[in-house]
Each structure stands twice: as structure tokens, then as C-alpha cells.
From TrEMBL:
It comes from the Bacteria. Keywords: Hydrolase, Nuclease, Signal. The keyword Plastid does not apply. Coiled coil: none annotated. This is Ribonuclease. InterPro entries: N1-like, Ribonuclease/ribotoxin. Residues 1-28 form the signal peptide.
């Protein structure tokens, strides 16, 4: 049986629980609440390929892959600059990078998928 890459990574729920246990605060913003979830098995096969490349450290098909994602849209949970990085999910038939991306969070090692160029995000759930 083949296990998806990063299957042991903790998700956002574990990060929230950790913050609560050590006395931190967690504030939900309307934007952060808009983040959905998606099962790893429901991702397009090209997203699986991108996640495998991330796990291997590359090589990546585009120079922009691995660059800092600024979260200017404010949809993902607020973090310090440099926390998030973006990677292209190849769109078959597209002559450009297309709209699909994986955005990773370094500290808690969460992975987000967007199919609409950062208008919405789904946290990848490796447990379903």
C-alpha cells in the first residue's frame, strides 16, 4: 500500500489544540473560517505529483515554485512572513502555470490546495 507524502504531518486542528494547551490564544477571522478541507484522495493527480515533489525537495517545473506566499488575500490563518510557500499544480492543457497551487505552512507542516488562484483554500486531510 502506498502512503501519501507527509501523511504524518499534523493539521491545523492540532496547531489550535497546541496553542490552547500552552496558554496561547486562537482567534477566528472570517477569512480563516472560509478555509475548507479536502481529502488527499480527492485531489487531482497533478496535486499528488506536486506534493511528492515538495517531499523530495524538487526539482520543480517553475522558478516560482517554493517562493514565499504572502497570504495577501488573508484567507489562510495569519502567520509571519515566510511561513507559507507556494507550488504549482500543473493544469493539463494550460500554456501557463494555471490557477492551481499547493501552499504549505512550514511550522505545522500543513498543506492547502487552491484550484482558483487563491480565492479559496482547502486544507489537505491525509486521514480520509
Amino acid at each position: 500500500m502506498r502512503f501519501p507524502p507527509r501523511i504524518s504531518r499534523i493539521g491545523a486542528a492540532a496547531a489550535v489544540l497546541s496553542a490552547l494547551l500552552v496558554g496561547g490564544t486562537v482567534t477566528a477571522t472570517p477569512a480563516a473560517a472560509a478555509v475548507g478541507s479536502i481529502c488527499y484522495s480527492d485531489l487531482p493527480s497533478q496535486a499528488h505529483d506536486t506534493l511528492e515533489l515538495i517531499e523530495q525537495g524538487g526539482p520543480f517545473p517553475y522558478d516560482q515554485d517554493g517562493t514565499v506566499f504572502q497570504n495577501r488575500e488573508g484567507i489562510l490563518p495569519s502567520q509571519t512572513s515566510g511561513y507559507y510557500h507556494e507550488y504549482t499544480v500543473i493544469t493539463p492543457g494550460s500554456s501557463t502555470r494555471g490557477a492551481r497551487r499547493i501552499v504549505t505552512g512550514e511550522e505545522h507542516q500543513e498543506d492547502y490546495y487552491t484550484a482558483d488562484h487563491y480565492r479559496s483554500f482547502d486544507l489537505v486531510d491525509y486521514g480520509c
